[in-house]
């Protein structure tokens, strides 16, 4: 059976399709597990330690990951963390437009995720 499929070129098409799907899945799920767990724990701490909260926080993260690539999430999170400091270094993160744009992109993605998971 496999020999006949290979002779028809079907196996090659199937292999290409599966490799394409694997690449798509990796792009859609590029947040590492530890980052996902940290996000959900933080979300649950803010929204209650219930099963419903777990489901909504997990949904929120899945939606966020579908909207915002992980590298942009890390950049925005870093900016937010640096803004909590004091001094000249922190002020640079507080008063630079490019950093404002990164945080705004994260906030938009979070708002969209909240609409989809908490209100939808």
**End-to-end separation:** 47 Å
Q: What order do the SSEs take from the amino end to the carboxyl end, as H and E?
A: HHHHHHH
Query: Quick one: biggest sheet?
Result: none
* Structural class determined from secondary elements: mainly alpha
Query: What would you call the quaternary organization?
Result: single chain
Number of helices: 7
Which residue ranges are poorly predicted, with pLDDT under 50 across at least 5 consecutive positions?
1-26
* Rg, Å, rounded: 20 Å
Tags for this model:
120 residues; mainly alpha; globular; disordered N terminus
Structure report:
The protein has 120 residues and is mostly helical. The chain has seven helices and no strands. It has helices at 2-8, 10-28, 33-47, 51-67, 70-83, 88-94, 97-119. Helix 4 packs across helix 7, helix 5 (70-83) packs across helix 6 and helix 5 (70-83) packs across helix 7. The protein starts with a helix and ends with a helix. The model is unreliable at 1-26 (pLDDT under 50).
Topology:
Layout lengths: L1 H7 L1 H19 L4 H15 L3 H17 L2 H14 L4 H7 L2 H23 L1
Structure summarized in a few sentences:
This protein is mostly helical and 120 residues long. The protein is built from 7 helices and no strands.
């Amino acid at each position: 059976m496999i020999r006949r499929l290979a002779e028809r070129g079907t196996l090659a098409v199937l292999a290409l399709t599966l490799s394409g799907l694997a690449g798509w899945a990796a792009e859609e799920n590029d947040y590492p597990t530890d980052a996902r767990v940290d996000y959900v724990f933080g979300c649950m701490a803010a929204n209650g330690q219930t099963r419903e909260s777990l489901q909504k926080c997990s949904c929120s993260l899945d939606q966020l990951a579908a909207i915002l690539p992980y590298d942009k999430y890390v950049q925005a999170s870093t900016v937010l963390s640096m803004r909590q400091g004091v001094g000249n270094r922190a002020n640079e993160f507080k008063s630079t437009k490019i950093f404002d744009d990164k945080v705004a992109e994260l906030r938009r993605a979070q708002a969209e995720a909240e609409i989809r998971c908490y209100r939808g």
